[in-house]
């Protein structure tokens, strides 16, 4: 009878072989069919490489693919599926994988049609450029203050967030977040280098970028005071969607009586 340690090794061998084509500490996450379904249920733009560990093209691509994954982490997740694993073969057939590697971007999980990589050599720069261009742009850009008021009225059924900064263009991070929370939170951008618009909202002009938050049905902004990285903003926006944000709790808290 085989030792239990050897049995465990044999059971995990397919996963080890799959991961072996990617460098140590790679940001590429291997998916099985269940993991693929979870990824497709998300609004997030995701890149998936369908590979085989014996494939020479896959082995040559893996370092560049891993570099691209690192460059775009955590904004755009990069995944891989080992089509040599028996439990993955039906998934690879469903995705019409006919050669290796086959790389696809899913612009909004499974909600939009996938796009196959056909952008030349599989280099880090090409993969990053292709992936970033595949993220749907759902940010409303305001050139005039009146545009903001009109937009707030049209989107009053949703929470709304507006990025105020000195740049004429909004950062890629903001575009990613707008896609991730599509139909849950409306996103806007206002270039406000002189901070006149920020001051009109009652915010202090301090030279920093700001996020104005408008609860659903409200025209009164609240200043977001958390971190400006992906994780912090995502946590805050999740709290808006699930109703646990502090400012939402304040709005439903009963008034304190000042008399017996």
What can you tell me about this protein's structure?
The protein has 260 residues and is an alpha/beta fold. It is built from 10 helices and 10 strands. The strands form 2 sheets. The protein has a 5-stranded mixed β-sheet.
| Domain count | 2
- Cα radius of gyration in angstroms: 23 Å
In the CATH hierarchy, what is the superfamily of the largest domain?
Glutaredoxin
Mean pLDDT: 90
As laid out across the biggest beta sheet, the strand order is: 1-3-2-4-5
How can the largest sheet be summarized?
5 strands, mixed
Oligomeric state of shown chains: single chain
Proportion of residues in helical segments: 25-40%
Going by CATH, the architecture of the largest domain would be: 3-Layer(aba) Sandwich
Distance between the termini: 79 Å
Class of the largest domain in CATH? Alpha Beta
β-strand number = 10
Domain Thioredoxin: 9-136
Keywords: Signal
Pfam families: Thioredoxin
Organism: Pisolithus tinctorius Marx 270
